[in-house]
Amino acid sequence: MIKKYKDDATEKLVETVVFGMLEKKASDIVTIDLRGIPNAVCSFYVICQGNSNTQVEGIAESVGYEVKKQLNDRPIHVEGAGLAEWILLDYVDVVVHVFQESSRKFYNLEGLWADAKITNINNLA
């Protein structure tokens, strides 16, 4: 069964994901709002980076912990946890990407989705 979040629940999930990232001092956090993009695979991407595979793993674990604690939800799929160069957590409407800097530059997700609304969380503080 595929779950679908309502907008309020989706936005709460995004906030919780960002909180989990900030708890482990993730850098360059951005949200990409894909709701206005036809045929997008989800409603939001939330992207950040860590300085090492240990920090990337810690950020991903923190996100999972906070989402479970606050919203009682778990990702339907996790990818990349073994190498921790890029960990993806799939919450259906929200897909979380935790990168090391080199992998983030290589895949350039912000550039691929440049027509979506991109918000830099670190610049909001």
CATH class: Alpha Beta
Determine the number of helices (DSSP H or I, runs of at least 4 residues). 4
Q: What would you give as the CATH superfamily?
A: Beta Polymerase, domain 2
For the record, the CATH architecture stands as: 2-Layer Sandwich
How would you describe the overall organization of this protein?
The protein is an alpha+beta fold and 125 residues long. The chain has a single domain (7-113), classed as Beta Polymerase, domain 2 (2-Layer Sandwich). The chain contains four helices and six strands; from the N terminus they run H-E-E-H-E-E-E-H-H-E. Strands 3-4-5-2-1-6 form a six-stranded mixed sheet. Strand 4 (86-90) and strand 5 form a beta hairpin. Helix 1 packs across helix 2. It is globular and about 35 Å long.
Q: What are its keywords?
A:
alpha+beta; 6 strands; Beta Polymerase, domain 2; 4 helices; 125 residues
Compact description:
The chain is of the alpha+beta class.
Layout of helices and strands, plus pairs?
Elements: H1 7-23, E1 27-33, E2 44-50, H2 53-71, E3 77-79, E4 86-90, E5 94-100, H3 101-107, H4 109-112, E6 117-120
Parallel strand pairs: 2-5
Antiparallel strand pairs: 1-2, 1-6, 3-4, 4-5
